[in-house]
Every structure is written in structure tokens, then in C-alpha cells.
Write a structure and sequence with these properties.
The complex is a heterodimer of chains A (about 240) and B (about 750). Chain A is an alpha+beta fold. Chain A has one domain: 2-Layer Sandwich (Alpha-Beta Plaits). Helices cover about 20% and strands about 20% of the residues of chain A. Chain A is built from six helices and ten strands. The radius of gyration of chain A is 19 Å and the shape is globular. With about 750 residues, chain B is α/β, with parallel strands linked by helices. Chain B has four domains: about 25-110, ADC-like domains (N-terminal domain of TfIIb, Single Sheet); about 120-190 and about 385-465 and about 500-525, 3-Layer(aba) Sandwich (Rossmann fold); about 195-370, Dimethylsulfoxide Reductase, domain 2 (3-Layer(aba) Sandwich), CATH 3.40.228.10; about 600-730, Barwin-like endoglucanases. The longest helix of chain B is centred in the first third of the chain and has 19 residues, at about 5-20. The chains are: A alpha+beta (about 240), B alpha/beta (about 750). At the A-B interface, helix 1, helix 2, strand 2, strand 3 and helix 5 of A face strand 3, strand 4, helix 2, helix 5 and helix 8 of B.
Chain lengths: ~240, ~750
Amino acid sequence: MPHQWGMVIDLDRCTGCEACVVACHAENNISTVGEDQAARGRAKHWIRVERYFEGEFPDVKTKFMPVLCQQCDAAPCEPVCPTFASYHTIEGLNGQVYNRCIGTRYCANACPYSVRFFNWYNPEWEKPLNLQLNPDVSLREVGVMEKCTFCVQRIKAGEIQAEAEKREVKDGEIQPACVQSCPTKAMVFGDLSDPDSEVSRLARGNRGIKLLGELGTLPKVTYLQKDSWHGSENA
Amino acid sequence: MQRRDFIKITAAGGAAAALEGCGNPDHHLIRFIPEEDLLPGIATWKPSICTLCPAGCGTLVRVMQGEAEVIRNGQLGILKMGLAKKIEGNPAHPINQGKLCPRGHGELQVTYHPDRIKAPLQRTGERGSGQFKEITWDEAIKQLVSQLSGVPGPSRGWWAIITSPLRGQRKTIVDEFAYALHGGHFEFEFFDSALPAVDLGQANYFISFGADFLGTWNSPVAQSISYGHMRKGRPGQRGKFVHFESRISQTAASADEWIPSRPGMDGVLALSLAHVILRDKLRPAGSAGGAAASIDGWTQGLPDFAPEKIEKQTGVPAATITRIAHESAANPPAVVLIGDSAAAHTNAVFSARAVSALNALLGSVGKPGGIAFSPALPMRGSQLLQPKSNLSHMEGPGSASFAMFRDMVTSTSKAPQVLLLHNANPVFGSAQGSQVRDLIAKSGFIASFSRFIDETSALADLILPDHSPLESWLDDALESGSAQTVVSLAPPAMAPLHNTRSMPDVLLDVAQQLGGDVAKRLPWKTYDEALKASFSELYKEKGTKNAKDADDFWSKAQEQGGWWSTDEKPSAPASAKATASPAKYAEPQFDGSANDFPFYFLPFASQMFYDGSLAHLPWMQEAPDPLSSVMWGTWVEINNRTAEKLGVKMGDTLAVASAHGTLQAPALVTPAIAPDVIAMPVGQGHTNYTRYASNRGANPISILAPMSVAGTDSLAWAATRVKISRVGEGRLVMFGASMEETPKDLKHR
């Protein structure tokens, strides 16, 4: 059975530090767009940290939630693409083939998680910032939609390595950049088709929920709800 | 447009395209012979040390072959070389264990920044005019040698070097250099780097007074790792975290309970918790040990700090204090931290002593789940690696705080004859009206090792640009963040891109050229030679188990990213000595009257820019601040009810005025701040700091009052009061994809 890559994000561990956000930029050659384009809503963050305040002063609670492509099994972005640029890979990823994309932006409209980003201009890296670019990840040109790939370049590299060594991919061996950077280990990545993998085990836990699960998108990212203190005054 | 014009345009475009087809203009450049043997497409991982904040995390740099435009011997050309492509945490390093904070990724952009200074510069125009010409390293070093010979002298005054806080052999070199030449080494930092190692992972109850330990304070990655463990790493056991501060900070946001308290009341609250614990006999009498004698009224049970008596003054209900005291005593190990704004009020010494007494009472000092200090380096030849803080430069090699420099220049109104600067930007980090800004500019001769033009290095007469950290040898002897002894070491991860030199190498070169005492004290030709010498000492003392001989030890340390002990116990802090005068409550003082300036002003360290030194990196500018989601700008936090009363809406431009200056920034209306507090991130407001940070936002440091923490020379940066007024509509650039309401499944359980 092919791998089914999935992720668990423990909101009780997440501190909203955004190490994942910058790690993603560094790994995936995401270009910065500058203040004016950012003001028009054109900044690209494949993973973002949403912050919610609940209540009024002085009783305010805060919650952070990292949101990235949920790699849905019933992905609303896929059937709307006229050129099959958005497609479902055999390993369950919502793939995006940049050189098929003609920029209709139907996929971004269809996505309920707002995790698809359009290139309104050609990306620019003022020299020598171009030297930071990761040669394993293709650059996206103007008119092309881009999104989180679960760091497919790392997945492929891990699979090729395992195959060369004639073995299975080990649990935890492949880590997307966000997971790798996360200081509180809030994010866990792995193979959902293996019931014993850490990600499968955590996803089955009673705190697990799917973001906008009622839409029937079948996301492969599971959030573990924030917990509260169970101790007592005289525990 | 007419059809003719249209055709013309296509023709012109075609011509341009045809020209380009003849070849990429890059290829007209000559190609240098590669200096390294690299396989294309194959990544190697080289250990390095993150230098962007004082935490000292170990990193791995992914290096791959690439082509870079470089200047070699004055000739521009293309070089096939190893290029850093990504920075990751070093899994073997005890501090960050393979993890990294958002800022840590930025060293890549420091290295490849388009505005890096690419060669030594000599000032040609007026000081501060920004007019420089490139000179050779020989010329630059000759100038520095001639400026430094003869100072200090009766006719030539004194000299100083201001750096960021340094550790390890790098610090030894600067300290010895300054000492041998009778100068002063001063370390500048706006936010104090703290010292304790907190064993948060084992704690069951955790109270923080203002310390932003998950964001920027002390060793945030190490603390975040253990925070995650405290939350969910121990099945069935989840620690509680309580945060006292007048605003929800990056750290407070993760607290189980955020308790807003009035600014400067941290010591009072700590003693009130102690009062309840003593009154209700929640801990054995005498468990505070020596700490008891250090607090006035402790032996009487701190009657003045009964929760009912301090309720009004602190803004915290008596019932809450009583409950927290009971919870903390009932859930050991419990630990209390104080830092950031709580340590930046005029009465912060009292607050810190109150917190340390409370820690002693809770039994958390030097125990698992408590507070400890990294073990002292146990080497006899320790002058090479042992950090020597708090030594006045008059007594021996060592460094003093920037505050001492400030007091020296302002009390005598005499600027140094020669001023050297490295990784420090005191002009940005000082208030508008502060004399020290003007006096720095009046120094006889200013030389900077800066990689970038910033507000301070813009004043330099000579710039000797440092390598990027990825291009340098690095070392670090950590004082905090781990219960182990950690000495980090890293060879350069890549060859230098520009005509730069490592700061310690330049100092060693200058020392040799000056000769005499300084050459004797610094006998090494290069920084890596000095590092090798210190590691040979370390091998004799500690490394014989881990390596065959000193050379083996040295090469293993380079491979691993340093040396760390595996069998040491953390050292407990020296027990608090009974002081002649026990600490007494002192009311926090604020600059400006409550009538004229109705709001407390709370600057805070920015999650992305730290103290402002990272505002020049486009990744940091475009990453939305986690709490405000603001990009490329700054903001002023104001309580939503206060804003409503004043008719202020989200994004409106506000003028914030203290008695010392005024600034303008857009309003961020939020429930997460007390109604009488105005908060603002430090980091933006640079007037001169590369194309990405210059003239963007406002700098809250610029309007601070010159208040000091009583009993110290530290700036009390949370002791200014301000007034605000609405100027008009403004612009706040936020990352807009986030949703308005918490999805229902994700509400707090």
C-alpha cells in the first residue's frame, strides 16, 4: 500500500512562535512580496499561525492554530482545476503541477482553508539573496498558484534513500521543514497507512479533530485540542 | 495605441530577446577555479552556532555547490563554491536539540543580504553623511594601528570597544585586547540576557512575572522544548503555567491563566504568594532558608502583603492570589521566573529578590523541576574559556556593561578618542534625548566591524566589515540554557562571499602589529589558532575520556559542533546571603505624572526582530507577528474599551508622547492589554539600516525616559508614562487570511 502522508498538530504544545512559518519560507523558496503587495493580501505563507482571543479584559484566553494545506482526501481544489494542475497523488497529497497551471485561481476560491497563494508578479530575489534558493524546489512564475507540498522534495528524497538501502521508510525519518523546526514538538509527520506510526497513534487520540471537518473534505491534518489543567488545589 | 506602435513594441521586444539569447550577461564574467571539491547536487551538513541572540543554539548548515558572483583579488567573476542553503537545529546540541526559533533561519539572509558591506570603507564626506570609499585591508589595518598607538595618553584621552555580549574565546580576545591597550570593553544589549537554566520540563507548576521565555527571553528554544514536555511529554501529568503581566505577550498567550497586574507590582505579588504560603503553613517553616533574612518582614510572616491589603494596589483579586499560592504549594515542583518588563521597573531589584525568596520557599532552587545555573567550567587554565563577567576593566581583562560607558561619557561629557564597534547599535538602542547618542558621535575616531550600515556604524570613519557568521570560525561558552557544560565550536560553513575579515582575526593582526604587551597577551596569529589552544586546555581538563589526544579532541569538536559534558550536575546558585539591609518594598517610579501622561508605556521585544537587530531581513519583515499578524510595520497596542472611549479604530494613526519625545504608529485595538497600558514592539523605526528596514515604523526606545533600576545602572525601560492622541486614519498591513472567530471544535476545553 502506498504511503498516506499525514500530520498531527498538538495545540496544547503550540506556542505560536512561527518557527514553522520562516522554516517554510527558507525550505520552499517562497518569495517575499514587500509591504505594498502584502497590504493587498498577496503575501505568501504556506503555513500561517492563526491567533484567537476569547473574552474581554481581564478574562482573555488566547489560542494559536497553525494552518497549512490539509492535504484533503476529498479536496475541493482538485475537481475545479481545468488543466489538472491540482491533482491527487497516489500518496494522498494534493499535488500542484506548476507548469500545467494557467492561473484560473478556481482552486484558491474552492479551498475553504485559504492556503493557496497566487503569484501576481514574477518573484524577485535581490542579488545575492538568490543564493539562498533551495535547488530541490522549483521556482514559481507569475500567474501560477502555489501551496504547501508537505515538503514533497524531502518525502521523495527519503523514499529514494530507503529504496536504495532496500528497506522501508522509518517512522519519523521524513520531516517537513515546519515539523523539523518546531521547538515544542507540536507537529508530528508520518504515514497514516501504518497504524503503528506516531502520527496514526496521535491522530486516534480523543483530542483529535479535523479543521472544518463538517465540510467533508477529509483532511489528513489532525489537530489535537488545547487541554486544560486537571490538577487541583490539593492534588 | 495605434497598430503601428504596437508592432514597434513587439519588434523592440524581439530585439531584446534576441540579444539575451546570445547569452546570459553573467557568462561574460570570468570563471575562477573552484577552491573546494564538491559534488553537484549533494548536500553536506556543517555545524555552526546561531549568533542572532545570546541563547547560543547549535545549528547545522546545509551546504551545496552553487555559482556565486564574487570578487577575488579585485576581479569580479563566477566561482563554483559551497553555498549555505538552509539552517537547521543541530540535534546533538544540548541547548536546542535540533530545533530552531523563527529568527534562527535568518542567518542565511544575513549572509546573502544585498546591502552587506563588501569591502573595508573609509569615510570621505562629513561624519554621518554616508559617503565612503573602498580601501584595501592593508590600508584599513594600518589606519587602525596608527589610531590605537598612543591612546590612552595624557594628550589623547581614552578609548573603548563596544560589542554585543560576547562569550568564549571571542570574548577573551576582545577583553585581552582592550586590557593590554588600556581601553575599556563594554557590552551593549537592550534586553538583558538572563542567566538561570529553568528545568521547566519537570515542573508541575510554573509562575512567570513578565518573562517572555517562549518568545525572546534567555534561551527560548531550550525553554520551548521543555515547555512542550511539561504540557504533553509526561502521560497523565500536565503542568500549569500562570503568567502575570499587564499585556498578553508571546509567552502569556500560552498560559493556562493570564493574570493582568499593574506594572511594577511583581515583587508585591510574589511576597503576597509567600505570605499565604507562610500563613496557611503550606510549606515547612524555614524552607526559605537564608532567603528569609533577605526580605524585610519575612520572619513576621509578611503581614503587609496579605492579599486583601494589596488587592487594590496590584489589581489582582485577593481570592486569585490565595488560590495560586495554594495551587503552587500543592503541586511541586513549582518554579517562579521574573524577567523582561518585570525586571525593567525602578523597583526591579526588590522584585527579583522577592521572587528568589519565593523560589526558595517553594523549594525549587537547584532541584529537578526548578531553577539552576549551568555548571562553571571546571578548568584550571580557565582564563581561556571561562566567561568573566562583572569585572571592571581596571582590575583585569573583562568587560563592563554599556551603562558604565554611558555614565562615563555623560558624567565627564568626554567622548572617547577612539571608539571601536562590533555587533552593537547603541544609537538605535538609546533614547532620542539621551546625551550618549551625541557623545558617541563626538568620538575622535570611530571604527566599526559592522556587516551593515546601521544608525551607529553610519558614524564610523573606518569600517572593517566582519564575515557573516556562516563564513567565520565561531565559539561560545554557554552560561545558561542547559544543565550541562556546553562549549560550542564551529569552523566556517562556507567561504566568504565578499572582501571581509573576521573581527577576532583583525584584532589579532592589529595586536601583532602594535607589539609589546598586547602581542604577548594575544600570542595567536589567527582566531582558529586561539580556539585550538583553548580546546587543547579543555582536553587536558575534561576531554581525555572522549578523545585519543588533543588533536583528536579538536577535530571531534569541529565535527560535532562543540564539546559538552555528559556527567555533570547543574550547580545550585549560591544561597542568598543575608544582606546588611533586607529588601524593602519600594514603590515603582514612573517618568511623567499620571494626570499629564495617563498611560503606562510598555515596550517589548519583537518576536521577529528581537531588539531590532534583525529588522533588515526580508523574511523577518514579511513573517506576520504571531499576536498581531502585522507585517512590514509597527503598531501600538491599545485596549478595545479604551479605544472606544477615545474614538480610536483599528489602524488609526496614534501619536504617542512621553515627556521625552513623540512617535506615530497605527493602533492595534485588542482585548489583551490593560486599559491603562500602551504597548509597542521594539525593532522597527530604523532611520538607516538597509533597504528593507530603513524608515519603516517607529522606535519606542526613542521616547523612553532615562530612568534607572534603583541600585543598578540598568535602564528601567518600562518606567515611562505617555499620553496618546488620534492623528487620523492610518495603515496597518496584516496577514488577512486568518478567520474571525475560533472554529467551534477548537474552543478551549
